[in-house]
Amino acid sequence: MSTDERRLATKVRKVREFLIERTIFVSGITSIVIVALIFIFLLKEGLSIFLTESVFDFLGGQFWYPISDPAVFGILPLIAGSVLVTVGAAILSVPIGIASALYIAEIAPPRTKEVLKAGIELLAAIPSVIIGFIGMVTLGPLIKDLFDIPTGLTALTGSLTLAFMAMPTIVSIAEDAITAVPRQYREAAIAMGATKWQTTWKIVAVAARPGMVAAVMLGMGRVIGETMAVMMVTGNAALIPHSFLQPVRTLTATIAAEMGETVQGGDHYAALFAIGIVLFIITFLINAVTDLYLHRSVRK
Amino acid sequence: MNVRTEQKLAFSVLFLCTVLVVLPVLVILGIIVVKGGSALNWGFLTAMPRAGMTAGGIMPAILGTLYLVMGAVLFAVPLGVLSAIYLVEYSREGRISRLIKLAIVNLAGVPSVVYGLFGLGVFVVFLGMGASILSGSLTLGIMILPVIITASREALESVPRSFRVVSLSLGASRWQTIRYAVLPHAIPGILTGTILGLGRAAGETAPILFTVAAFYLPKLPQSMFDQTMALPYHLYVISTQVPGVPENIRFGTALVLLLLVLTLNLAAILLRYRFRKRKRW
Predict the structure, then answer these.
(1) What kind of fold does domain B58-276 have according to CATH?
(2) Which residues of A touch B15 (CB under 8 A)?
(3) How far is A287 from chain B (nearest CA, A)?
(4) SS3 letters for chain A?
(5) Predicted local distance difference test score (pLDDT) of residue B243
(6) What is the reported pTM?
(7) Which of A193, B20, B109, B202 could form a disulfide with A287 if both were Cys (CB 3.0 to 4.6 A apart)?
(8) What is the ipTM of this complex?
């Protein structure tokens, strides 16, 4: 190859690499662009509902009658449904999830540990529509008979199902946090005469607390956003619930169940997008706060 | 209470809690396998549904799901891998990389139904693709992007720094270094992430509800601009929307979906395991 040819080849290579590196940079920021686009499009399609319904009436309105005439779009019953189901799921899943994280990380023998972790991973892999289906055909009838109520598809059924679905998130993140606690903490405690349990509960669990908080928050984020399973097991009644044994309707289920019947660009369509805005903001805040919190506690 | 008994008691409680988490998983799998197994045969997998979906097979739903996940992966893998390359090889620790990481975390947390809304707003309506395989694939692709980016990032980060240093010191350019000294060693990790993404995309229902999924279609989709049936949506439809679907068809559909998703996950786990064992540095 002559010098000229070589020079040319180098030049071609440089141009090519320049283009590749530009592409890489553009791809690098796609995540930011997509988050922004999601928000922009939710606003674009959803904001028009606030021309007919004030923000206050939308968020605080007690009635969700999207197809009556005139339609009323108050999402308080849906918020109440989501909150009730989420609180129920938290009450069940937080103590049990943290306890099993402690067991898996600190107590289980290595082989058992691998089996348990595989089980949790398996749970994370099961599609939510399958969990909803099984919840509907097994848990529903069980709760119906147990409490002798007309339908087994209630907020309680939803909470139980969601508590189960939050487990992979809570257990695996909490377990990571527990495993990350330095060995010296444990050795020092044992050397001072503490039992294994005292070390686990009073030293390791305390040191891992920030990670556990993050685990719980992300788990709850998952629960609020869960759609299919919750739609299949909660009975779908858009009324403000007074007990766990009533059917409820969550924010997510409302979007999934009703979008198919709407007219594109109509009020109902916009109202469902506006619910999407509410959900997006909730999960965004949960994730951002958790991330900042974790970041801060890592730096400390 | 004696400290020993206290410890014994506490450990038993923790163990019980763990059983409470893991046992239902086995129960769910058991129920589906036992009740769905009887429906599973060649005809069920290859026939069209008949009699208003109360008889026949689920072939169009299986095929539709395969189309959708292939489309999602074709879109998400190149984008995700390049994005990971940027994060690991090019960006410096700073505001932009912080922001990108925060965006990825948030994408992973966005509810799946909100992805569905996004897909409806952008692909179906704004870009005029209508409810189609294309819209559904792109929506699913965006949803699994965080999975692919995170896995690729870990794979790239696990390649030792010395590989890059040596390559650069021999006169290779930055891109040549990435292309020939880093990327080949990250491929297994990227593949693992891709398969996990496939599994996730195959099982999701909410993102495809308004972007592609059809209740029932008498014939198979002809192009990527057609609607299609899909397994998870089909399970939802026959278990809540259509009365009188025999139990074994419902459980059989659940079993097929479960097998598909679990096979993909198992493949990813095995791949990761083999890769870790073979690693020589």
Answers:
(1) MetI-like fold (1.10.3720)
(2) 103, 107
(3) 6
(4) CCHHHHHHHHHHHHHHHHHHHHHHHHHHCHHHHHHHHHHHHHHHHHCCHHHHCCHHHHHHCCCEECCCCCCEECCHHHHHHHHHHHHHHHHHHHHHHHHHHHHHHHHCCHHHHHHHHHHHHHHHHCCHHHHHHHHHHHHHHHHHHHHCCCCCCCHHHHHHHHHHHHHHHHHHHHHHHHHCCCHHHHHHHHHCCCCHHHHHHHHHHHHCHHHHHHHHHHHHHHHHHCCHHHHHHCECCCCCCCCCCCCECCHHHHHHHHHHHCCCCCHHHHHHHHHHHHHHHHHHHHHHHHHHHHHHHHHC
(5) 81
(6) 0.90
(7) B109
(8) 0.90
